[in-house]
Amino acid sequence: MTPQTPQPIPRPAPRPTARPTPRFDLVGLVVSDMAASLAFYRRLGLEFPEGAESAPHVEAELPGGLRFALDTEETVRSFHPEWSPPTSGGRIGLAFLCDSPWDVDSTYESLTAAGHKAELKPFDAPWGMRYAVVHDPDGNGVDLFAHLDGSAP
Question: What share of the chain is helix, strand, coil (3-state, %, to 5)?
Fold first, then answer.
């Protein structure tokens, strides 16, 4: 008997694979004063680790698995030395759903009493919401809203 040459094992043709879709995971802000920003966002119910005031980067877990992060300007400059903060208003919109129209007013009063700049006093918007806007310590507009009829979004 003569030895036979082994035949290669046929491999299936590669199947086209779907391109992975990036998953929205984090909202990040660059802050001038970590302690002031933590105090502001803690007043809105976000939970950050104790002692984070001196950290260069902090995160809070959000419902649904998203994260909210704060980075100091120095942190950003550590990997992007030419970066500088924008000189005009930001283009980011953050909005916090309050439990009731009364909570919009109460939260607005609490934040402005703590020295945060008011942009729009609470009002009944034509789209059916109690609505107000305050600025965080870096001048980002933060919307406060609740449905006037008590319904959830």
Answer: 25, 30, 50
